Amino acid sequence: MLDIGSFQARTCDGVSRRSFLKLGASVPLGLGLTGGLAQASQGSRAKSVIFVFLWGAPSHLDTCDPKPNAPVEYRGPFGVIPTRTPGVHFTEMLPRIASRSHRYSLIRTHATTAPGHPDGGTVALTGFAEVPTPVQPNFGSIVAKARGNQGTLPPFFSITSGMLADASRRIEGYGGGTLSQAHDPFLVGCSAGGEVKLSALQLLDQLNPLRVQDRRQLLALLDTAARRADQHQQLAWTRNMQSGYDLLLNPAARQAFDMTRETPETRARYGYTTFGQSSLLARRLVEAGVPYVQLNYSRHPEAINPGFELGWDTHVYNFELLQDQHCPTLDRAFSALLDDLYDRGLIDDTLVVMMGEFGRTPRITPNASRDHWPPCYFSIWAGGGVQPGRVIGTSDKLGESPLGDVVSPLMVGTTIAHLAGIDTQARAEMNVLANGKVIDALL
Fold first, then answer.
1. What number of other Cβ atoms are within 10 A of residue 168's Cβ?
2. Lowest mean pLDDT among 171-175, 305-309, 318-322, 432-436
3. What is the pLDDT of residue 165?
4. For 123, what's the count of Cα atoms within 13 Å in the CB-facing half-sphere?
5. Residue 27 has pLDDT above 70, yes or no
6. Structural domains for the chain
7. Partner residues linked to 50 by β-bridges
8. CB neighbours of 258 closer than 8 A, spacing ≥ 6?
9. Which residues contact 75 (CB under 8 A, 6 or more apart)?
10. What are the phi and psi torsion angles at 269 (to 5°)?
11. Would you give the DSSP letter of residue 379?
12. Based on C-alpha coordinates, what's the Rg of the chain?
């Protein structure tokens, strides 16, 4: 099922230009490029990237970096199980992912500078802090600009029910940043039942894909008035309107969002959860040729906050939430995603990166949970030129600090860009990821 949304926007004279401007402003899509940047993907190993963002930050000790020999106030209640990689263990909460460790590589020595939400989200998604401004572009926006609008779909999707935010404000590094709003992600939501909603396309009431073609005439009548606007804004508006029309009018593009084309067995393997069906949608977008998909576990990081989706920010009920919801949901969906990418022959051309914005306190808090911990956390990398079955770095015996070289968020973004074919020269031309280094141990 595909929901394109609606809103009331009528005047005595009919549909207003403001309504169309709202549509344009809500569909911030990139424009195809010419020249060196547009050719960046020619030498890439990864034609597509799926960035699995565990917004809220999962506990590394309770998932992929357990410390079974640590004192009880550190190690937690979960048992430890072996992975397919010799000498590497996960907790019992992730049995499916553990059994597939030969299909990905693990980094256990991440550290970041941002201690909270949503500033930590900006660093995780851009490699740079929010301050000093200007905010740097999301890794997906960098890929989107380098690739351009080459297919029937926008080059950068963020799968979530809305813009990522905590209880007070959004992640500033969600989109184009210094590259402009033209390279912001296209937001698409997916429910636990597989209903897809393109919330960015707030179309006029009673306007559906079968009738959009007739509205082009009306759009032409608005051109004269639109030219009074700032030239840059008008250019962006024209691009966005065209992209919105193209998306709705192209049957092949719309098919990517039709989850009913998947078998019940496939949908069940991912799990009938929001993240499970969103993961399946991510695979479908990759099959449709989308260069960058940010697959978000939740829209908000908070684990306990009425009216919000439950994220990984487990200041309370950490172990209960991991056991009953987060780990089973992640284990099922992520393992199914990996299997599908391998079985369908997509893994060599698709880079998958899974991580949160930081870790959680190794010492269990008085609330029997874990708080924020920027000095140490993990990530998982698969496909797209990454050598599988490797473990990069280790943390100390309590999981408090990396032993050896630290891997920063900037290195994450630089490695993604490198594997997507955006080399040093291309990054310099865009003025992005300055001083970033590639994680050579992954290659």
1. 7
2. 305-309
3. 94
4. 22
5. no
6. 1-30+201-256 (no CATH), 35-198+263-442 (3.40.720.10)
7. 293, 352
8. 1, 2, 196
9. 61, 66, 67, 68, 69
10. -65, -35
11. E
12. 22
